[in-house]
Amino acid sequence: MGFFSKLFSKEDKQSLDSGLQKTKESFFGKLSKAIAGKSAVDADVLDNLEEILISGDVGVNTTVKIIQRIEARVKRDKYVSSNELNVILKDEITQLLLESNSNKGINFNEENLKSPHVIMVVGVNGVGKTTSIGKLAYQYKSAGKKVVLGAADTFRAAAVDQLKIWSERVGVEIVSQGMGADPASVAFDTLTSAKAKGADIVIIDTAGRLHNKVNLMNELTKIKNVMKKVLPDAPHEVLLILDGSTGQNAVEQCKQFTAATEVTALAVTKLDGTAKGGVVIGISDEFKIPVKFIGVGEKMTDLQVFNSAEFVDSLFGN
User: Fold this and answer.
1) What is the C-alpha separation between 238 and 218, in angstroms, rounded?
2) Which of 5, 49, 241, 306 is 20 to 30 A from 181 (CA-CA)?
3) Please, what is the Cα angle at 307 between 264 and 26, to 5 degrees?
């Protein structure tokens, strides 16, 4: 069936449970204290819940939305016990993720992808961009796809070198010109090579400089325009990598990149090392851009296709 259309496996679930453990312990530890001795969900419980959600990096706007929904249910049902709060909260978060198109682990139906399928990857340095590209290449290759990487982050020599290391580790081809080269030229050469060699997947790395949004916008636009000379509908996806451990900084980065270019999908990394996993909920709700991948560990397979139902289940699991 291939990587992107496979069912969520037992191993995936175990990695997800483990990766979200710190978030779950932090969130539910605070929630247990907030409802201790309470027989019903009242104004004090809701105030405490609001504080817990915000401190868990769910975000103010999304938190207010969740609280309003719970208030409506309490009003409608007349009486809601504190023991029912977990169930209601789980329901509302699941519904928010569904409304944000982050649902059921995006199925790429890879047999129907245009070949080559071009993914342009954006994100600031340090968020796990290169590592995510390497893991993504590994997953595609494991699914039987021929993958070509493009080292178009030519602003830093380290970025090119790191991507070369990943290409060797995974065993996929890479096209590069070294530090200081024109990123658009690298992208053009990558697509030309991929098309000639019958590649299935092309993943283009790009520089992640946010200090000048105009320059970033111009550079990404130029890369897109040059790629269209080889493949008129490229790129097929623009994947933004965000570091989940930075909490609200990830939200700000999402604002900057979505203002600079059209982002079609998100990957939230490093969730295993933080208690800020709630940021996935806030980002998904605020930007209405599908979260397609989450990083929950160091293994090659720990860049998972995001499955909203399994994510919420792991967050609320016993």
Assistant:
1) 15
2) 241
3) 105
Q: Please give the Cα distance from 271 to 142 (Å, whole number).
A: 24
Which conformational region is residue 123 in: left (phi greater than 0), alpha (psi within -120 to 50 degrees), or beta?
left
What are the backbone angles phi and psi of residue 247, rounded to the nearest 5°? 60, -120
The DSSP secondary structure of 287-300, one letter per residue, reads H---EEEEE-SSSG
Instruction: Give the contacts of 31 (CB within 8 A, at least 6 positions apart).
Output: 49, 52, 85, 86
End-to-end CA distance of the chain: 31
What pTM does this model have? 0.91
Tell me the CA distances in angstroms from 278 to 24, 58, 85, 180, one per residue in order.
Answer: 9, 5, 17, 38
Question: By C-alpha distance, which of 49, 59, 54, 60 is closest to 85?
Answer: 49
CB 133 within 8 A of CB 295: no
Cα–Cα distance list, 282 to 34, 105, 130, 250 (Å): 22, 18, 24, 10
- Tokens at residue 251, please? 């939200």
Q: Judge contact between 200 and 146, C-beta under 8 A.
A: yes
Cβ proximity of 277 and 244 under 8 Å: yes
Under 8 Å between Cβ of 287 and 276? no
* pLDDT of 110: 52
- Cis amide leading into 290 (omega within 30): no
pLDDT, tens only, 283-296: 999 999 999 999 99
